[in-house]
Amino acid sequence: MDKNLHIYNTLSRKKEVFEPINPPLVGMYVCGPTVYSDVHLGNCRTFISFDLIYRYLLHLGYKVRYVRNITDAGHLEGDRDEGDDKFAKKAKLEQLEPMEIVQKYTLGFHDVMNIFNTLSPSIEPTATGHISEQIEMVKEIIANGYAYEKNDTVYFDVEKYNIDFPYGQLTNRKLDDLLEGTRELDGQDEKKGRLDFALWIKAKPETLMQWPSPWGWGFPGWHIECSAMSSKYLGETFDIHGGGMDLQATHHTNEIAQSQACNNTSPVKYWLHTNMLTVNGVRMSKSAGNGFLPEELFTGNHPLLERGYSPMVVRFFMSQSHYRSTLDFSNEALQGAEKGFQKLIKAGETLQTLKAKSESSVNIEELKANCYKAMNDDFNSPILIAHLFEAVRIINLINDGKESINNTDLDNLKSLFNTFVFDVLGLKTDDTNESNDSGLTGDLIDMILNLRLDAKKNKDFATSDKIRDELTSKGVVIKDTKDGFEWEI
Fold first, then answer.
1. Which of 30, 189, 194, 249 lies 20 to 30 Å from 276, alpha-carbon distance?
2. What is the pLDDT of residue 224?
3. How many CB atoms are closer than 10 A to CB 334?
């Protein structure tokens, strides 16, 4: 078991050696989608990032129980427990049952995750499937003195909790600082404190989704679901909890408070958060009009896109930035990623054709050590990719006869390339055989270039040049080699 893995813990604000609570078992919980609309690219980045983390932990030999929830109830429009439940509102607009909305967008989410080649989680629980567990947790928090009931709604008492535990520890903020940024309660507010949040919400008569509880008919608050489901499937304390950085200040802060108030122990050892997406330097959001749905990115059907980009190109593009770094989308950046992805895949194909020599002039062990060093440094995928392009350089030099490699090193290079390109980064070669903008497929390009080879052998240089010029005009870059040819889009 490799013990050199270091990960950045949001809670401690530093990199720590990864030491699971019960090795080789690892419990990992990631806040999943709220399924009342199509999944946006910002969500996709989070789930692709944790797919990379999941894949690498599996590669290191850990047995990972990966839990990713589905929020299908209790998510209100406002951040002060105000407004309608988003699922009920969407159901009314589309004249459907709430669970039809849930089913529709859950299936859509799974389709997008499959397109991006993410592994399925071990368990994918839903909020509506765990109402009883949430009710029991609320009862325990009340019994421990950290919550109160008012008019059939149960609120978490933040200021009372903060006497015993630091409420703002995840964002390194004191309670007084948090209170300063929160508006005063008006006379109609039922809460005792400005930061108090709902654990259980009284349902209006017309509420579509409601359940019986000791406090009357209602539905759970948004935050309680993750505390209830993570403790059920991973225990009162588990290894990794992840999500987007936008969840730190409220959702994850409240999760810690709920779990600690219920179980009197810190719920998570390592907190991991992905950073935001920007478009041409501006934060990606619906209100800014620069948010992409995955389908828009694949088809190019968006005013900010010059054309579409394949799912694997997008996944590779996301991997070129560290999960904790801001990722900026632009056509230039995506097109650069496309060229890099194609070069990587083409090198993998060339690797399978290399012939071993009696001696090696390349250092594969050093390359392997560098790849592991990158991933062991908080899953540093951009540094890993830099080393993989060193592998590409080595492959091309060997193919051109400028370097040599023996059988053992060749086998190690093939294993290394397969491990990190396909198993860890989660890339696929399928896209190299799909149609590009010119309508050409990989098989068709190979067939045409083989015809060009025949023309050159027959000294029909006019036909050879014509084929080359036609393919070049369609964006195919051709490189003649001693064994035939190489190409990329």
1. 194
2. 97
3. 19
Using an 8 Å Cβ cutoff, are 425 and 344 in contact?
no
The structure tokens 């025949």 sit at: 454
160-194 confidence digits (pLDDT tens): 999 999 999 999 999 998 988 776 665 557 899 99
Is this prediction's pTM over 0.85? yes
Residue 131 · residue 137 · CB < 8 Å: no
Residue among 218, 183, 212, 184 nearest 199 (CA): 218
DSSP letter string, 214-246: TT-SEEE-TTHHHHHHHHHHH-SSEEEEEEEGG
Q: Do the two domains 6-74+90-145+158-180+223-274 and 278-432 of this chain adopt the same fold?
A: no
How many Cα atoms are found within 13 Å in the side-chain-facing hemisphere of 360?
A: 16
Distance, in Å, from the CA atom of 278 to the CA atom of 394, rounded to the nearest integer, reads 35
Peptide bond into 24 cis (omega under 30): yes
d(CA 451, CA 467) in angstroms, rounded, equals 9
The CATH classification number of 278-432 equals: 1.10.730
For 118-138, what is each residue's pLDDT tens digit? 999 999 999 999 999 999 999
Alpha-carbon distance values, 336 to 174, 317, 320, 332, 434 (Å): 44, 9, 11, 6, 19
Beta strands per DSSP E along 282-415: 282-283, 327-329
Instruction: Classify domain 6-74+90-145+158-180+223-274 at the CATH topology level.
Output: Rossmann fold (3.40.50)
In angstroms, the CA 47 to CA 181 distance is: 31
Cβ atoms < 10 Å from Cβ of 82: 10
Residues 6+ apart with CB under 8 A from 104: 96
Closest CA to 66 of 317, 207, 272: 272
Give the distance from CA 14 to its chain's centroid: 21
DSSP 424: I
391 and 413 Cβ atoms separated by less than 8 Å: yes
Question: Residue 28 contacts by C-beta under 8 Å, 6 or more apart in sequence?
Answer: 50, 53, 54, 57, 64, 65, 66, 67, 234, 238, 239, 240, 241, 242
> 315 by DSSP, 3-state: which?
helix
Q: Domain locations in the chain?
A: 6-74+90-145+158-180+223-274, 278-432, 435-488
